[in-house]
Design brief:
- By secondary structure, the protein is of the alpha/beta class.
- The protein has one domain: UDP-N-acetylmuramoyl-L-alanine:D-glutamate ligase (3-Layer(aba) Sandwich).
- 39% of the residues lie in helices and 23% in strands.
- It contains eleven helices and 13 strands.
- The structure holds adenosine-5'-diphosphate.
- The site of adenosine-5'-diphosphate has 17 residues, from helix 9 and helix 10.
Length: 312
């Protein structure tokens, strides 16, 4: 029986500029990116990957669902009549990227209105969500999702949370920080990025970030920090630092953290070796930031070959 990985959140429609001046349509979003890399890395016989979200009944919703399924990811989608997916457009100006979003009315905001899909999938071995997942929900839906995750944890599922702090999605920093800690308290594993945590929680260093989430109930905290060392602190005594290999030409850091999380979790779920998992996370993130875009193919490589390649 494959293990079951379920990511929960919002996948958006992406419009990115092409050299000819037109726009290409793609699909991306933090938790979806992680699901996509997870699917790329793990064989279906080892891991079943699902994405839980909500879509509307328009053509773009159909395209988005088809894209996810064509990637080998099972969809657990609530349908919201009349709604459409969130969208964003990438603008390029003198090599710098900027983004404009249309997501305030997106169908995904209703992903927790009815969590029967999550209950069906409640047998998931690992449930993954982020600060963006909770930011887009109305308060009652947010509480419903957290209660469902808590119940899944009670049944033995591993709950994994990336705080992915995005103040623009919240009414205030205080509210963002309050809900981040509440969401993190449902998770055994928390995967924060230090720069964000330092900005909004005033952590003086990575140790402070790890200590805060451990005191909040996490069993394992992996603090990413761009090119700096990854700090691992575990309630069970798994404690070390890992320095990622330098990346000579960083092209685009989009999805660095999302791809790190995927390789980390695949290794962790399959082999339960935390040091190898961190190394795989860094190696995949290094590969991803060497190319443009959120979804960088890890083509035609099964997990074992990829693991060898990642750790070479
Ligand atoms: P996020 O995308 O969440 O901001 P980080 O910037 O903390 O994530 O990076 C996640 C991981 O990506 C890091 O732990 C590291 O492995 C890799 N990474 C990011 N930036 C660099 C870089 N400049 N050089 C090498 N590795 C990097």
């Amino acid at each position: 029986m494959p293990k079951r990985f379920i990511a929960i959140g919002e996948c958006m429609v992406e419009f990115s500029p092409t050299p000819s001046g037109t726009y290409a349509v793609g699909f991306a979003g933090d938790t979806f990116n992680t699901a996509w890399y997870t699917r790329q890395l793990a064989e279906p016989a080892t891991l079943e990957v699902s994405y839980l979200s909500a879509v509307g009944d328009d053509g773009l919703s159909g395209q988005l669902t088809d894209f996810i399924e064509a990637a080998g990811i099972r969809t657990l989608m609530a349908r919201v009549p009349g709604a459409a997916p969130g969208m964003y457009m990438i603008f390029l100006s003198e090599g710098e990227r900027s983004f404009q979003y249309w997501r305030s009315q997106s169908a995904a905001r209703h992903l927790a209105d009815d969590l029967s899909a999550l209950e069906t999938a409640g047998e998931g071995d690992l449930l993954y969500f982020s600060g963006i997942t909770i930011a887009i929900l109305a308060e009652d839906a947010r509480n419903r999702l957290l209660a469902a995750l808590q119940a899944a944890a009670g049944r033995g599922a591993e709950i994994v949370f990336d705080p992915n702090l995005r103040p623009r999605l919240w009414p205030s920093i205080d509210e963002m920080c309050h809900w981040t800690m509440k969401a993190a308290s449902t998770a055994g594993i928390v995967l924060p990025s230090f720069e964000d945590e330092a900005s909004y929680f005033s952590d003086v260093d990575e140790e402070a970030t790890a200590a805060r989430y451990l005191a909040n109930g996490a069993r394992l905290v992996v603090v990413k920090n761009g090119a700096g060392p990854v700090l691992v602190r575990g309630a069970d005594g798994d404690s070390f630092q890992y320095q990622p290999e330098p990346v000579a030409a960083v092209v685009d850091t989009t999805a660095a953290g999302d791809s790190f999380n995927a390789a980390f979790l695949v290794e962790y779920m399959i082999r339960a070796k935390i040091r190898e998992a961190v190394r795989a996370g860094c190696a995949l993130a290094a590969h991803v930031i060497g190319s443009r875009g959120a979804l960088v193919p890890v083509t035609g490589i099964d997990l074992i070959a990829c693991r060898n390649r990642l750790s070479a």
